[in-house]
Amino acid sequence: ILSRWIPNIYLDLHPEKNCLNIGHPRNPQLYIPLHAMEETSRFEKRHVILVAAAYVLVCQPYALTTLALTSLRLDFYEIERILISIFGLVTFFRTLLGADFLIKLGI
User: pTM above the 0.85 mark?
Assistant: First the structure.
């Protein structure tokens, strides 16, 4: 992870500011006063269910494929060929559509 990919977020607790700064520490791009923040749910229930379903759709094929290949008692070389093909397809679609392509398809 490159440092420029991670946004700088820090709290300024000086009494005159008392805010959350987003951006470079010397020149923040956004100030959010702490008194303006409140505890609310930022995601709808439908969105959370779709993200959970996408998570299952991403993990379930790997688990089922591994169990199926284990029960077939194939040689290591045959298993390797099948898994490389599956992982290659998933990697291709992740590269083409983005890392969260299943979430994008569901929403």
Answer: no
